[in-house]
């Protein structure tokens, strides 16, 4: 009997080890499946599932298969925070990422911090995300408004010197950040000379954009700065085209994605300038092998080209995997330590996670939309972007002194 009991105990123990080793590692993706930013959200989902499949085929993370648990933020900050809490508290997510609206990313990041989990922002450009609202558990993968504005303004000052600007800006944290940053670096802070209009967010109507653009039409501006994103940018740009403004003014969309360009279409988009952290043709032009592999895998799987949204989600999962494996654990504090100051190259040239603010420092690109015929000649009718200027990440990013100044102004500590 003693031996039989021992054998039974040993079998039960072995079974428990097997169960533990087979347990999946849950990661939460909090993105807009509906609402004004749903197209950018869809790209995140596609990029994330591609990464998860690749990671699982290669053995998972620390031998555990990754399970992606998704929730719809609808672009609403409160819902994003509730989703994050539920993903961690009820689903057991070891990390959460996502967001298109900066307000959603900020609120979701705070919910993750309260539960000692990392939150990676995928599309969050407001300076506040890793600035005044930054904290130890928030990591931002794309560039911020400051970095975009610095690169864009360098190009615009060289090519549109002494011209008047007109700003049409979404009235929330991302829009405020971008307009403030572009005005600063383009020397257009005089709001009497370089006028602007705020449009409602998140429920702007076509009539709101038309009224704003009619004011732009009546100004002397030669540069039209559309600080809008997602469906809002699409609608406003259609109106601007119908009014003939795209022929009379240089239209600039500070944060431009492939999804937005494709929604508007090559005829309306031709000649428009914007900023981008990554575009699908970049790996081919600069010969980044891993970037080319990603583009080809994504294109073959989904019959479309990946946007910067997809690239961000894909990169985050690989960055989390690598940090966990360097740490040898999913313990949040240990993973944070491995991320801070880490340099890597994945889909483009070298990037790194800055230790003092958790901003991802990377090259910033200024792009111009190609002629219609060039765009449609691509296999997926997606060859939109001509890279016309690039700025190294360390040149584009805030210095520590500049970051600390913003933290002081917000009454926040000078360390995360």
From TrEMBL:
| InterPro entries, alphabetized | BCAA_transport, Leu-bd, Peripla_BP_I
The UniProt record lists the Leucine-binding protein domain at 24-370
Quick one: signal sequence residues?
1-22
**What are the entry keywords?**
Signal
The reply to whether Signal figures as a keyword in the UniProt entry is: yes
Q: Name one Pfam family in it.
A: Peripla_BP_6
The keyword Repressor belongs to this UniProt entry's keyword annotation: no
The text of the family note is: Belongs to the leucine-binding protein family.
Q: What is this protein called?
A: Amino acid/amide ABC transporter substrate-binding protein (HAAT family)
Q: According to the entry, what is the taxonomic lineage of the organism?
A: Bacteria, Pseudomonadati, Pseudomonadota, Gammaproteobacteria, Pseudomonadales
């Amino acid at each position: 009997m003693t031996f039989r009991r021992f054998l039974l105990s040993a079998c039960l123990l072995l079974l428990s080890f097997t169960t533990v080793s087979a347990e999946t590692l849950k990661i939460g993706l909090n993105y807009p499946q509906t609402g004004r930013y749903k197209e950018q959200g869809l790209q995140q989902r596609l990029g994330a599932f591609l990464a998860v499949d690749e990671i699982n085929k290669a053995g998972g993370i620390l031998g555990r298969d990754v399970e992606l648990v998704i929730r719809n933020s609808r672009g609403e900050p409160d819902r994003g925070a509730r989703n994050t809490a539920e993903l961690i508290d009820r689903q057991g997510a070891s990390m959460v990422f996502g967001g298109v609206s900066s307000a959603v990313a900020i609120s979701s990041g705070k919910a993750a911090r309260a539960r000692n989990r990392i939150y990676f922002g995928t599309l969050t450009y407001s300076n506040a995300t890793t600035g005044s609202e930054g904290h130890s558990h928030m990591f931002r993968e794309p560039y911020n408004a400051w970095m975009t504005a610095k690169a864009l303004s360098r190009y615009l000052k060289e090519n549109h010197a002494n011209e008047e600007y007109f700003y049409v800006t979404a009235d929330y944290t991302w829009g405020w950040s971008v307009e403030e940053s572009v005005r600063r670096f383009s020397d257009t802070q005089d709001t009497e000379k370089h006028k602007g209009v705020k449009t409602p967010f998140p429920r702007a109507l076509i009539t709101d954009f038309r009224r704003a653009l009619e004011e732009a039409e009546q100004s002397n501006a030669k540069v039209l700065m559309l600080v809008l994103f997602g469906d809002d940018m699409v609608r406003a740009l259609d109106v601007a085209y119908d009014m003939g403004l795209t022929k009379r003014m240089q239209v600039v969309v500070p944060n431009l994605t492939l999804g937005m360009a494709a929604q508007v279409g090559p005829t309306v988009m031709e000649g428009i300038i914007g900023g981008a952290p990554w575009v699908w043709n970049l790996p081919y032009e600069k010969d980044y092998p891993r970037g080319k592999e990603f583009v080809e895998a994504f294109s073959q799987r989904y019959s479309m080209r990946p946007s910067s949204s997809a690239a961000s989600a894909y990169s985050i999962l690989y960055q989390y995997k690598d940090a966990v494996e360097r740490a040898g654990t999913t313990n949040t504090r240990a993973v944070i330590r491995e991320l801070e100051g880490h340099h890597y190259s994945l889909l483009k040239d070298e990037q790194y996670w800055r230790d003092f603010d958790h901003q991802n420092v990377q090259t910033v690109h200024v792009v111009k939309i190609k002629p219609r015929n060039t765009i449609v000649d691509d296999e997926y009718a997606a060859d939109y972007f001509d890279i016309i200027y690039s700025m190294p990440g360390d040149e584009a990013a805030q210095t520590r002194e500049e970051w600390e100044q913003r933290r002081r102004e917000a009454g926040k500590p000078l360390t995360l």
